[in-house]
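Q: What does the predicted 3D structure of Nitrogen regulatory protein P-II look like?
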Amino acid sequence: MPPDKSETASMVLMVVVVNRGKGEKIASLFVDHGVTFNLLTLGKGTADKKILVYLGLGETEKDILYCTMPLETSRLMFEKLNELNLSKPGKGIAFSIPISGVADAASCKRLQGAAQKRGGISMELPFKYNLIIAVTGQGYMDEVMDVAKSAGASGGTVVHARGVGLRQAEKFFGISIQPEKEMIFILAKQELCQGIMETITEKMGLKTDAKTIVFSLPVNGVAGLPSSDI
């Protein structure tokens, strides 16, 4: 039985990107506040080498933490993350995405965690940022990011992936698709989002060797950005 819409309307997926080895510490902080659904993957930062030198950073390997929680809890967690000086250069970045639906009531309760309270909070909030997700062929990460930066993107995080069901996809699109993929997460201001996606599609899209597919999701909370950008 699907959950009541009021239960899912106030849920978000929070994504936290920090330097390799820091993800477990962030996950422990979340668990201490009742956030029990946490997944950790490995990624790679795409900041320009000159920027890394300027920031005094020698590493680009990243931990990426995915957590589901009520919107009310996410506001508290953003405060806790900012207390860790996440907004300082090189510390990391966090953002949340509204969840539009969950398959059943049991899954909903699992995703909400122990911190869920009765009643929902409206998700009708202004979205100042979008999360752009570009799925490209392996080896094209740098080219896609260069194209994105030319349209205003400041950087991104890469997750290695593998495509499945490719035989059917090749028949549908009429093109050859390699199984090894790279997913690039780019957090961009809303006014820049469409231009970045169009530029990637034009120069690195399905008609090119990179075979990049691009889409975006609304972001309803951020941490780890300079206050002038929020």
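A (community wiki): The structure tokens above were generated from the sequence. Strands lie at 11-19, 38-45, 61-70, 93-98, 129-137, 157-162, 180-189, 213-219, 221-223. The chain has eight helices and nine strands.
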